Structures are given as C-alpha cells and as structure tokens.
Amino acid sequence: MPMRDMLKLKEEFERYSVVYYVQEVKDGVILHIQPIDFEGLRQFLIDLTSDYDVKIHSRFGEFVVELKEYRKRVWINLVLLIATFISTTIMGAGMFGRFDIVGGMMYSIAIMFVLGFHEMGHYILARKWGMKTSLPYFIPFPSFIGTLGAVIKHRGKIPSRKALFDVGVSGPLFGIIASIIVTYIGLKMKFEPAYTEEFTLILGVPLLFELIAKIAGYNEIYIHPVAFAGWVGMFVTFLNLIPVGQLDGGHVLRAMVGEKAELIYKVVPVALIILGLVTNSSIWFFWGLITLFFSMQKHPKPVDDTPIDLKRYVVGILTFALGIACFTPTPFSITKS
Predict the structure, then answer these.
(1) Residues 297-333: pLDDT tens digits?
(2) β-pairing, 62-69 with 28-35?
(3) What is the pLDDT of residue 85?
(4) Distance between CA atoms of 44 and 219, rounded to whole angstroms?
(5) What residues are paired with 24 via a beta bridge?
(6) pLDDT given at position 3
(7) What CA–CA distance (Å, rounded) separates 215 from 226?
(8) What is the rounded average pLDDT of the residues 163-183?
(9) Domain 3-69 sits in which CATH superfamily?
(10) Sheet of 28-35: strands edge to edge?
(11) For the chain, which residues make up each domain, given as ranges?
C-alpha cells in the first residue's frame, strides 16, 4: 500500500480512535487502536469493506484492525457456475425415470436462469445505486434440485432506505418474472416419465403456479422438469420474501417501516415453527430455526434513513402479495408409487 494511502487511513482512524501502532503489510495495513467513538468507528469500518477485507480482534486490551485490499476473483464465480451446471444437469437427467442428459441440460438451463435472474436483479439495482457488489455465486449441491441457489455479496454501506428497498425488492421481482416464463414454457412441454422408483415426489401447488397452469391449459398429472424449475423459483421467491433480517423480505420490510421491522423479525420465526408443527412439515420448522438465527442480528442502518416514497410502499405491498401467491403450506411430500 502506498505510504500516502496509509497515512490517510491513519488520519481517518484517528477521528474515531487512538492509534498506537501502524504496520504496512503486503496489500494492506495493520493498526492497533483504542476506540473513542464506537458508533463512528463501526460505520467507518463498514465503509472500508467496500475496498478492503476487514478483520478485527483484540490483543492485550487493544483492538487490532487488519485491512487487506479486496481483489475480485471472477474465476471462483466461473468455477461455481460450471460446477452448478454439472450438478443440476445430473439431477435433472434423473427426473425422467432414465438418465436423459439432454433433458437434464434443459432443466439445468431453466433452474439456473431462474436463480441467476433473481440475483442479477439485485446486481443491476445495486450498481445503479453505486453500491459495490459481486457477480452471482452459484452453489452446487447434490440435492434433488441440484443446487442450493445463488448469492451475491454486497460490500460497504447502504446509501439510503430507497437503495435498500430497490436492491431488496428487485431480486424477488426479477425471480418471479423468470419463474412465470419458465413455468409456462415447461407446462407446454410434453412429459411422459418412465418412473421405476418406489417413491414419487408430490408437489404442493401455489396459487401463482395454478394460475399459470390454467393459462397454459395444463391438466396432466406429471410436470416436465423445466416446469419444476419454475416451481422451485416460486418456492425460493417465497422463502426470500420472508420478512426477517438479511433475507430480501427483511430488507424490504426494513426499508418500508424502519427500525420497527426488528419487532416483526422476532415474531416471524415463531410463526414458522408453529406452521411447521400444524402442517407437520419439517421444512417450515427448519426455516423457523434459520430465521430465528437471522432475527438475532440487527439489520444494518442505511446512511440516509429517510422514509421511502408512496410509490415504493405500493410496490413493496404488491411484492409481498406475490410472495404469498408463491406459498403452499405443504411444499412437497413423498408417497409410494
């Protein structure tokens, strides 16, 4: 790190702390400090995460801050993209009752389009607001879906409630659009599975999926794996819109009602656990525990915490309504064939 930048960083830290020691290291700097303005220092460190990897620990009563310049590693995104394409293709190929590699690739393209379009919604709006964010990281996983989804990383501060709302709401809206497109295409595709398995996966039908099925004129028993990718997109959209913490729904709610959202964050996990017990569905009990963990973490405060405008409130309400249309009390069950 150039000496001038290191001196500038030291001066910035001295606004919020007493700086005892500064050491230049490869691609970064280490500072030993004693905070005097904890809130100011916290916000400053959040700002630094847009350009640095920040690590903090204590040593002999002092705080040690390690800063290393952040470097984009696009090759990781690419490797995960390829790995997820392979895992979803393999899992999709097995959905035909025989190993159909072409069919598996069709499913893979559909599911990755749905999940990727969701994350690109976040990416596009984050860039629009000048927020630093990564490209999507797809997550390969050998489940019956073939993936755990995709995520992007935001770095640095949240400029305003408007920015928080736009970035939070864009992913679910983009995801719903992609899910509708993929579901309609999938329901128009002929599918006659050659099932030999002992058990069959039965899907719950959300209102939005049922509406698209009527528009498509679908009245069969089995759905094509491409349509299943659309169903997954709707299910993921609902999960993301659960109004808790760092989920998209948590961001949108925080932007809409401010710090009052923290109260709702604590109620939702209990409601999910109760839903799991009532419906005897382990998925809701599991998500109740996950969201309980999220609710314990206070949502980051935007720099400008001015309330959003009426137009965004309306969009937010409509988005949550669409999320409810993607809900089904029993997402899936397994029965003997």
Answers:
(1) 888 889 899 999 999 999 999 999 999 999 999 888 7
(2) antiparallel
(3) 96
(4) 58
(5) 29
(6) 45
(7) 17
(8) 96
(9) General secretion pathway protein M, EpsM (3.30.1360.100)
(10) 17-25, 28-35, 62-69, 52-59
(11) 3-69, 76-336
